Amino acid sequence: MDLFSAMKISSSGMSLQRVRMNTISSNLANLNTTRTAEGGPYRRKMAVAEAAPMEGANFADALDHSIRQVKTVEIKEDKAPPRLVYDPSHPDADARGYVAMPNINLMEEMVDMINASRAFEANAAAARNARNMAQRALELGQR
């Protein structure tokens, strides 16, 4: 595997984590949204990813055939039912006084956000290290 492939893999990881952070931000922003254009409360969104073969890679040996990058496949809605909260004074309350709230758990979203942030940082460090290795290799060639 060459250094550019390492940077591409890290770049794909950072791209996925950016999508995850945007999705989590949307979930947090809509934590109390009880009405949407589709009707009903906001539904939690999740990024779905898969391992994909490296695009444009020149596979020199058998080891390089197993190298994969990550790819965002879709943004999927969580099918969990909405939380029911008793609040008879709320404008969206049903006849029994319950309001259908988004199926978002604040603590779960915060843990996911920290996870995505750290994964982004790890991929950035890997890309930085690959760049430093390439730079040092060029410096060796100048001597």
What would your notes on this structure say?
The structure is a single chain. The chain has 3 helices and 4 strands, in the order αβαβββα. The chain is of the alpha+beta class and 143 residues long. It has one domain. The strands form 2 sheets. It has a two-stranded antiparallel sheet. A two-stranded antiparallel sheet has the order 3-4. Helix 1 (3-29) runs antiparallel to helix 3 (106-142).
Cα end-to-end separation:
25 Å
Q: What percentage of residues falls in helices of 4 or more residues?
A: 40-55%
- Profile the largest sheet: 2 strands, antiparallel
Q: Give Rg in angstroms.
A: 22 Å
Q: Please give the count of helices.
A: 3
> SS-based structural class?
alpha+beta
Summarize the helix and strand pattern as letters.
HEHEEEH
Number of domain modules: 1
Mean pLDDT: 90
Strand order in the largest sheet: 1-2
Strand coverage percent: 15-25%
Count of strand segments: 4
Poorly predicted segments: none
Shape: elongated
